[in-house]
Amino acid sequence: MTTTSKAELEAQLKQAEEELQKARAKARELRRRLAGESVDNYTLRDRDNNPVPLTDLFGDKDDLITVHNMGKHCRWCTLWADGFNGVYQHLNNRAAFVVVSNDPPETMREFADSRDWKFTILSGADSPFAKEMGYMSDDDKPWPGISTFHRESDGTIRRVAHTWFGPGDDFCAVWHIFDMLENGPNKWEPQYSYA
Description:
Strand order of the largest sheet: 1-8-7-4-5-6
Shape: globular
Oligomer: single chain
Radius of gyration: 19 Å
CATH architecture of the largest domain: 3-Layer(aba) Sandwich
CATH topology of the largest domain: Glutaredoxin
Structural class: alpha/beta
CATH class of the largest domain: Alpha Beta
Number of strands: 8
Mean pLDDT: 93
Distance between the termini: 48 Å
Helix content: 25-40%
CATH superfamily of the largest domain: Glutaredoxin
């Protein structure tokens, strides 16, 4: 029986990390090649139940990051949103940034205020937005993820890329930090608060 030396393990780890970076680069390229899908000018609802067309969400930017959030009932989506709250100013400097859930505006507003979220929150409760973007199951259950959009000079909106959220993804740093612990996440699950 042979044992693997520390130097061999470090070399294997370095190779695995390099392969991971190459895989991420390939995924980015494939997303770009899939880009170009024109989308409707969906109407969502702001925290005061006012209608907001998708075109208005861009503000003075040509790019829009939209997080599809499952709403107040999902601790996992709350974890992701809490993380975005911390980097919001950086994201919003490059592109407009919003979080959309299917909670009614009042529920969404109260929950966002209780979390002290700084970003724009919107309700898609009465909109086909989540379903047509692929973030709603056939039985109308929301799914989490992210879509990015670009507004052309003629006002056309294109969805540039999209992907799903889930434990271990690249959009929530806690998973990668937990992976470095002795037992990894060790069945950890997010809570709304910790005693």
